[in-house]
Structures are given as C-alpha cells and as structure tokens.
Write a structure and sequence with these properties.
Radius of gyration: 18 Å
Structural class: alpha/beta
Strand content: 15-25%
Number of helices: 8
Number of domains: 2
Strand order of the largest sheet: 2-1-3-4-5-10
CATH architecture of the largest domain: 3-Layer(aba) Sandwich
CATH topology of the largest domain: Rossmann fold
Largest sheet: 6 strands, parallel
Oligomer: single chain
Helix content: 25-40%
Shape: elongated
CATH superfamily of the largest domain: NAD(P)-binding Rossmann-like Domain
Order of helices and strands: EHEHEHEHEHEHEEEHEH
Distance between the termini: 16 Å
CATH class of the largest domain: Alpha Beta
Low-confidence stretches: none
C-alpha cells in the first residue's frame, strides 16, 4: 500500500515510521511543501492508496477538500475541525471517497470510552457528579482535546445529566493524559488513560488506513475500531 502522510510533527513522523514498519511505501509532506493544500493535485493524490492527516485544524480542512474531491481515501487524526464535519461527510459521499476520522486512534482510549459509558450508565441518578482533566504537550493546537470532548459526550449521553466540565492543561512534551472522575458524598471513582508515547495513536491510524483502503463512505473511528 502507498501511504501519503500529511504533517511532519511528532505524531506524523511516527505514523510514517509505523507504516514503513508494516511494509507500506510512505511519502511525507510537511507544511511548507503543502501550503494551502497546493501539493494535493489530483494526479499526485492518485499515486497513493490512502492519505493520513496529522496537521493542524486550519490546514486539515483544505487538505480534506483537495483529497476527497478526487475520490481518494483519507484518515484524519487531526482534531479541532468538527464544525466542518457535515460538509466533509457530504463531499466524501458525493465523490465516492473514503473518510475515517477520530479524536483518538489509541485502542486504549477507545476502551476507556466504553468503560466511561458503562460508568455513566451504572451511576446514573446515584448522586455522582463527573469531571474531566486532560494534559497534553504545549504545542497541541486545540484545547480541550478532542478526546476529552468525546469522553464528556459519552458520559453526558450515558447519564442524561449535566454537562461534564473539562480542565485542560498544556505541559512540556506530555503525550496525553485523560482522567475521568465521578464523585459523590460517599466516595470517588477515577478512570485514567495515560499515554506513555504517541505510538499507540500512530499504530491505530495506520491500521485504520489499512482498513479504509478497501472501503468508501464516512466513518468515525469510535464506531469501527473493533473491526480494525
């Protein structure tokens, strides 16, 4: 499989390394080479089986427009753009392209989301209040993280209760820490995911690209990760 990786930051570099380890041909474009999606011409994109984007909220929207308009397959690990999701989905479906997006491609995080859902269901109407803390590296563009927002949505849906507050911290080179706390007058329950590195995200993204390479349509990683 030929993979085009957009973004040469820490996660993008790791995605390229993991894809190569898994036997794929890899080409990487950094921000300077692809300003305003200028490199993503139809002939160029046609040379790849899947495009993987780990850029910025500003860049990813233009990248999606260019890639999906050609009918190509695209995995998006960038967050902070979901207000444009409906338009991206419509474009993917209209062009018979493939789009797989996710706030977090870590299997561990996806497991945490399932546990958080169960926690919310079991503690519903039991006097517990929920809160979330997340910590990431200082160069992360969006705050709160997409993962924290997804975690809050999962809990809110499960409990049918109040909005879950999120405290976001940006510290050094932190790979990603998410802590969900349920507190009552009697006790406290804490669910934590602490990423030791970005490798889990990179491996999930590459496996997602392998899965998407034979499909069209629009998918949320949260809905299909157990197939990947």
């Amino acid at each position: 499989m030929r993979v085009l990786v957009l973004g040469h930051g820490k996660t993008g570099k790791l995605v390229a390394e993991v894809a190569a380890e898994r036997g794929h041909g890899v080409h990487v474009l950094d921000a300077k080479e692809n300003a305003n999606a200028s490199a993503l011409t139809p002939p160029f994109v046609a040379g790849f089986d899947v495009v993987i984007d780990f850029t910025t909220p500003e860049a990813v929207v233009q990248n999606m427009r260019a890639v999906l308009a050609t009918g190509a397959k695209m995995v998006v690990g960038t967050t902070g753009w979901y207000d444009r999701l409906d338009k991206a989905r419509e474009l993917a479906e209209r062009k018979d392209a493939g789009l797989l997006y996710g706030t977090n491609f870590s299997i561990g995080v996806q497991t945490m989301l399932q546990m958080a859902k169960k926690m919310g269901e079991l503690l519903r109407n039991s006097g517990y209040t929920f809160s979330i803390e997340e910590t990431h590296h200082t160069t992360k563009m969006d705050s709160p993280s997409g993962t924290a927002l997804t975690l809050a949505q999962v809990v809110e849906s499960a409990t049918g209760g109040a909005k879950v507050p999120i405290a976001a911290h940006r510290v050094g080179d932190a790979a990603g820490l998410h802590v969900l706390t349920a507190s009552s007058a009697a006790d406290k329950i804490v669910l934590t995911h602490d990423a030791h590195s970005r490798r889990g995200f990179a491996e999930g993204a590459v496996r997602a690209a392998e899965w998407l390479s034979t499909r069209t349509g629009c998918y949320d990683f949260q809905d299909v990760y157990d197939q990947i």
